[in-house]
UniProtKB/TrEMBL annotation:
<dbReference type="InterPro" id="IPR011333">
    <property type="entry name" value="SKP1/BTB/POZ_sf"/>
</dbReference>
<dbReference type="InterPro" id="IPR050457">
    <property type="entry name" value="ZnFinger_BTB_dom_contain"/>
</dbReference>
<keyword id="KW-0862">Zinc</keyword>
<keyword id="KW-0677">Repeat</keyword>
<protein>
    <submittedName>
        <fullName>GZF1 protein</fullName>
    </submittedName>
</protein>
<feature type="domain" description="BTB">
    <location>
        <begin position="31"/>
        <end position="103"/>
    </location>
</feature>
<keyword id="KW-0863">Zinc-finger</keyword>
<dbReference type="GO" id="GO:0000978">
    <property type="term" value="F:RNA polymerase II cis-regulatory region sequence-specific DNA binding"/>
</dbReference>
<dbReference type="GO" id="GO:0005634">
    <property type="term" value="C:nucleus"/>
</dbReference>
<feature type="region of interest" description="Disordered">
    <location>
        <begin position="147"/>
        <end position="197"/>
    </location>
</feature>
<keyword id="KW-0238">DNA-binding</keyword>
<keyword id="KW-0479">Metal-binding</keyword>
<keyword id="KW-0805">Transcription regulation</keyword>
<dbReference type="GO" id="GO:0008270">
    <property type="term" value="F:zinc ion binding"/>
</dbReference>
<dbReference type="GO" id="GO:0000981">
    <property type="term" value="F:DNA-binding transcription factor activity, RNA polymerase II-specific"/>
</dbReference>
<keyword id="KW-0804">Transcription</keyword>
<keyword id="KW-0539">Nucleus</keyword>
Amino acid sequence: MESAPVLLESKSSPINLLNEMHQLRLLGHLCDVTVSVEYQGVRAEFVAHKAVLAATSKFFKEVFLNEKAVDGPRSNVFLNEVQVADFASFLEFVYTAKVEVEEDRVQRMLEIAEKLKCLDLSETCFQLKKQMLESVLLELQNFSESQNSEEESAAHPNVLPESRAVAEAGQDPPDCPVARPSHGASPEVPAPKSKEK
């Protein structure tokens, strides 16, 4: 009698795999590609693994699948018009699935994601830009609402001058006698309320 199959699935394996690949890259072990990046005279070289780059970037996948056998174990790829810091952040993202960048670099990271056809980074940048935009819109809405409430409270005494005058007329000034109608109040001015002691 055969038993039913069961699923063995590791939640930590993908993270462990990424961490191990990242450590191998940082140490330069088993790297089989050198990416040379140059932007406005600033140049740097990065070693990486073809399999990781190809799995995360359609640009690199096309490059590696179409390259002819070269005369060495390591391939070279040249990227122009990509800033060194941006490519370093790109590499960190593809090897760790996260990277910390300044807010003003998010747009540049989106551009490099599109240039290198990295869908995960592109989606991450879009989500972050959306959150940033929603945050700005919320701040603007709160600011607008606080401005409106300040304007209303500042304008409130001027909006209803009659009710203010009536309220003041209902109170007797200490040194000034007030003439009151003895029978029947006029419809425009309500009869003053009696004060309870």
